């Protein structure tokens, strides 16, 4: 339906990493988030009306209005239900005109911590572009390694910049720097004004513009990850991603501690080579941010690689919660994370969920094992 809307000059703006592989009903059922939520909102902000068929009948609002005060919002029984209550059969979404202008950009910072402080300030001033994502040094190197053979990652990134200026005069260490990728959407004047403001804020944190091409490559890297993960299996490389949301004052500590946990746990379990442990800040809010981790290791020689992976991710998830992070920002709970759900929503909260499940689906027809 994206192409049909675009042909009419319209868009939804919801652009999750899984855009190629996910569905509208899935976005609703998992409370999805998209890369451009700063302008268009998360899925709960875009949904106007939902119809869900349950074993007890159809659930839906009687009208398509912007807001209601009629008790608890029944949409929120459906959003995040993960297939446990019924099947989402109809969704009405807000649509908007296609943006007049789309411009990519990027900013290089001396360290990840400095980058986090800048992104936090941008969120504080409520001037974030459609998408702003801050990748750590490991992910920066990983992304640059995907460029054509021949250039070093640093030289390739600095096309159009002066590497000597950054390293000798500005003191940037290629093994410490990080990059924010930007996407601006809107009217031409609006985008131009937003660019000026973002780069002005970045300059206060030693941020240096790094060009549109790097911003575009960084944005598109997200869509490549799923293919690289599957390709890795052919080379005994097991990889996956996980995410969380966290208050601003804990972003840097959480990122550092979780990556250290991944490396330490792999060593404890006999993984012979250092794992890939990298993160990025992907969505920003007034109170905090979404942090997304990529993790993978070479499992050659391990007797039970899937069990090893589960132990490592379990340790990482425990560390996320210990550092004040959420169980999930937009991936949902499913089967693998539900053991942490009581800790997240309380035992009383679990009983509330069970009561809704029992009332709507007493025979457990939709017993796919998610959530409960």
Provide keyphrases for this structure.
372 residues, three-stranded antiparallel sheet, globular, 12 strands, alpha+beta, seven-stranded antiparallel sheet
Can you describe this structure?
The chain has helices at 2-7, 24-30, 37-40, 43-46, 75-78, 112-124, 137-144, 153-157, 163-169, 188-203, 212-232, 251-268, 305-322, 341-345, 347-360; strands at 10-11, 47-54, 57-60, 87-93, 96-97, 101-109, 131-135, 178-186, 208-209, 237-247, 276-284, 288-298. By secondary structure, it is an alpha+beta fold. A seven-stranded antiparallel β-sheet has the order 9-6-8-7-11-12-10, sandwiched between helices. A three-stranded antiparallel β-sheet has the order 3-2-4. Strands 1-5 form a two-stranded antiparallel sheet. Strand 2 and strand 3 form a beta hairpin.
Strand order of the largest sheet: 9-6-8-7-11-12-10
Ends apart, CA distance between termini: 33 Å
| Major sheet details | 7 strands, antiparallel
Helix content: 40-55%
Structural class: alpha+beta
Mean pLDDT: 91
Compute the CA-based radius of gyration.
22 Å
Strand percentage lies at: 15-25%
Pattern of helices and strands: HEHHHEEHEEEHEHHHEHEHEHEEHHH
């Amino acid at each position: 339906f994206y192409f049909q809307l675009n042909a009419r000059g319209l868009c939804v703006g919801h652009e999750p990493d899984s855009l190629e592989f996910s569905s509208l009903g899935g976005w609703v059922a998992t409370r999805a988030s998209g890369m451009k939520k700063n302008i268009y909102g998360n899925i709960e902000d875009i949904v106007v009306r939902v119809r869900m068929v349950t074993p007890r009948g159809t659930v839906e609002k009687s009208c398509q209005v912007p807001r209601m005060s009629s008790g608890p919002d029944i949409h929120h029984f459906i959003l995040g239900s993960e297939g446990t209550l019924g099947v989402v059969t109809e969704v009405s979404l807000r649509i908007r005109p296609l943006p007049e202008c789309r411009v990519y950009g990027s900013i290089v910072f001396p360290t990840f911590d400095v980058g986090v402080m800048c992104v936090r300030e941008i969120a504080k001033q409520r001037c974030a572009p459609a998408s702003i994502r801050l990748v750590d040094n490991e992910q920066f190197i990983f992304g640059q390694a995907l460029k054509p053979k021949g250039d070093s990652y640093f030289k390739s990134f600095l096309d159009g910049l002066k590497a000597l200026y950054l390293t000798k005069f500005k003191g940037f260490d290629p093994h410490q720097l990080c990059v924010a990728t930007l996407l601006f959407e809107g009217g031409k004047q609006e985008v131009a004004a937003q660019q000026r403001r973002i780069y002005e804020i970045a300059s206060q944190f030693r941020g240096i513009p790094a060009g549109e091409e790097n911003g575009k490559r960084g944005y598109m890297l997200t869509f490549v990850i799923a293919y690289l993960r599957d390709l890795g299996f052919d080379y005994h490389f097991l990889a996956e991603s996980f995410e969380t949301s966290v208050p601003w004052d804990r972003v840097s500590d959480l990122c550092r501690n979780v990556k250290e946990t991944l490396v330490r746990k792999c060593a404890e379990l006999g993984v012979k080579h250092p794992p890939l442990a990298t993160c990025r800040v992907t969505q920003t809010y007034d109170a905090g941010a979404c942090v997304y981790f990529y993790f993978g290791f070479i499992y050659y020689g391990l007797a039970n690689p899937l069990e090893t992976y589960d132990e490592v991710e379990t340790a990482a998830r425990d560390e996320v919660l210990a550092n004040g992070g959420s169980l999930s920002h937009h991936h949902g709970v499913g089967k693998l994370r539900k053991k942490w759900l009581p800790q997240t929503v309380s035992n009383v909260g679990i009983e509330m969920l069970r009561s809704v499940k029992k009332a709507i689906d007493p025979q457990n027809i939709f017993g796919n094992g998610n959530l409960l």
